[in-house]
Amino acid sequence: MTRSTQRDFSTSGISNSGLNVEDMIVAVSRLIHDQIRDDDETKTRILTDKHFSIFNEENYFAGKEYKLPRLFLSMLKRQATANDVYLFIKGFYVTAKFSPVCVLISLIYINRFVVTSKLPLHRLTWRPIVITSILIAQKMWDDINLQTSDFAEIYPFFTVKELIRIEAKFLAFIDFHLYIKMSLYAEYYFSVQSIVKSGGNLNKAELESIANSSNPITKMTSTASTNATPSAPMAIVA
Fold it and tell me: Is 80 exposed, middle or buried (0-12, 13-18, 19+ CB in 10 A)?
């Protein structure tokens, strides 16, 4: 795989077909949110299976309260809203400055993970899985890639060692299947574009308003520096 593939996605004509990065983040956030469960059966699997428990956010909480803004602490305790997912992804995009291509590729990786692991996204796991998918997408497809330590600095809820462990388990579940055909990317792209064009109940104006005033990721980065029945995944998963 070569770094030129990322440029191929960006220059293939797909990126000029009417879907801007804001639309993409909003639509991808909706697709991820629609998969997040809060059911007892999935929770039991996460709590009792050592292969799944690594993605349990609650396992990483102890001793880190001082690093986290109150807004984020409140988000950890409740079921995710579409706004929460949007703010999470948008915060990483604005702070890490990775390419827009990575937003859509992260969705492909998430869907591969859900299908191969047979573990739905859950209130306890969606943030670790999303950050890992973005981290891997950025490493694989951007010409200038960030390191795991950069993501730990942006999102100090996890240490570098913790992110490395989560990333390794994620990769094992998808059997290191990281290659993405142009045709697959196009299918996802036009599916997302269709959601945007149809409106999709995305509540975009509200999301943008919230993001401008209280994004917990950007607040966490600032704090760290000063303190040192849900739908199934998209069927296109190959």
Answer: buried
State the Cα torsion 80-28-195-76 to the nearest 10°.
10
What is the helix (H) or strand (E) element at residue 156, kind and residue range? Answer: none
Report how far residue 51's alpha carbon sits from residue 173's, in angstroms, rounded to the nearest whole number. 9
**pTM for the whole structure:** 0.81
pLDDT of residue 231: 52
Q: Would you state the structure tokens that stand for residue 231, as one six-digit string?
A: 């739908």
Who's near 193: CB < 8 A, 6+ residues apart? 17, 18, 19, 23, 27
* Euclidean distance between CA atoms 162 and 74, whole angstroms: 22
The token duo for 150 is 């950069």
Structure tokens at 203: 């509540």
For 124-177, write each residue's pLDDT tens digit: 999 999 999 999 999 999 887 788 998 988 888 899 999 999 999 999 999 999
Q: What is the pLDDT of residues 80-130, one digit of tens each?
A: 888 889 989 999 999 888 888 999 999 999 999 999 999 999 999 999 999
From residue 11, how far is each of 14, 15, 17, 65, 99 by CA, in Å?
7, 7, 11, 43, 13
Helices 126-141 and 101-117, axial angle in degrees (round to 10): 130
Please report the beta strands in the chain, taking only residues with DSSP state E, as ranges in sequence order.
Answer: none
């973005």: which residue's tokens? 134
The encoded tokens of residue 6 equal: 């990322």
